[in-house]
Write a structure and sequence with these properties.
- By secondary structure, the protein is an alpha/beta fold.
- The protein folds into two domains: 224 residues, TIM Barrel (Alpha-Beta Barrel), CATH 3.20.20; 53 residues.
- The chain is built from twelve helices and ten strands.
- Helix 9 runs parallel beside helix 10 and helix 11 packs across helix 12.
- 39% of the residues are buried.
């Protein structure tokens, strides 16, 4: 089993050369170099070139590299996709996706511009219509591998206040997690806007993990360590997973289909989850070398 850790997914402004350079030293699993919200209209073309040059030059180590383009309904998106089609990135991130047709039109453009078939599409769900159509979006095309929650825009569109318990978001968040899992996709929780609210960040990360998210999108490097801690398996988690696997393997050799570990019944489904924990733990250890 080979999995990509996506505990911490950090947005970096594509117009900021210093930020793009600093990103090479940050403990983020994934970097999303942004051509959309973080870039003023008059800087769009310059930012596009800067970001493409940066990823092609490299120096980002084992970090997963993603570029967020401008929306499909903007004058910049087509040129963004053409410019990044040959770039050394894992995925293109699409903002404000509301239909499967938007995903399919992006696939057509990437194919037209000669993008590597392995280049993935990440779809941002950040409007009520996007949430309503999330099942169709998630199933739109094999290139689509991940959903990202855009909770800031969603709050505005749904007229939801930002509260510590995020009660107004829970239904939308859970619907999107269900859609992602139904299609075998990863899914990332939205950003936490209060940069100096460490306890608030901890609370929403824990809530996101409980809701089933794979990681957290972030807007500042100071948020990285906490997201990595909460969304990543600890050494104790890895040790427990190995105990479960070993105990079940021993039970199978004795012709048993279940085993008790620490007073809890363990079946094959628990072993599959234990193997997933170990795979992520190993991937994190490998990328930190």
């Amino acid at each position: 089993m080979s999995l990509k850790p996506r505990r911490s997914v950090l947005y970096m402004p594509g117009s900021n050369a210093r930020a793009l350079e600093k990103a090479k030293t940050l403990n983020a699993d994934t970097l999303v170099l942004d051509l959309e919200d973080a870039v003023a209209p008059q800087q769009k073309q310059e930012a596009r070139k800067r970001v493409v040059d940066a990823v092609n030059l490299g120096g980002y180590g084992n970090r997963e590299m993603v570029i967020r383009v401008n929306g499909l309904d903007t004058i910049w998106c087509r040129d963004d996709l053409q410019a990044i089609a040959q770039a050394k990135i894992s995925a293109v991130c699409l903002p404000k996706i509301e239909s499967e047709e938007q995903v399919l039109s992006t696939v057509e453009l990437l194919d037209q511009f000669g993008a590597d078939p392995a280049m993935e599409i990440w779809a941002m769900i950040e409007t009520p219509k996007g949430v309503q159509n999330v099942n169709a979006i998630a199933a739109a095309h094999p290139r689509l591998t991940l959903l990202m929650m855009g909770t800031s825009d969603l709050a505005k569109e749904m007229r939801i206040p930002h509260s510590p318990d995020r009660v107004g978001f829970v239904t939308a968040l859970s619907l999107c997690v269900l859609a992602a899992r139904a299609e075998g996709l990863d899914i990332l929780d939205g950003v936490h806007l209060a940069l100096d609210d460490k306890e608030g960040l901890r609370a929403v990360c824990l809530q996101g993990k409980q809701l089933g998210f794979d990681g957290k999108t972030l807007i500042h490097p100071k948020q990285l360590d906490l997201a990595n801690e909460i969304f990543g398996p600890s050494v104790a988690d890895a040790d427990k997973a190995q105990v479960i696997i070993d105990a079940f393997t021993q039970a199978e050799s004795e012709g048993k289909g279940v085993v008790v570990v620490d007073g809890k019944l363990v079946e094959n489904l628990h072993v599959e989850e234990a193997r997933r924990v170990l795979a992520i733990f190993s991937a994190i250890s490998a990328q930190n070398r």
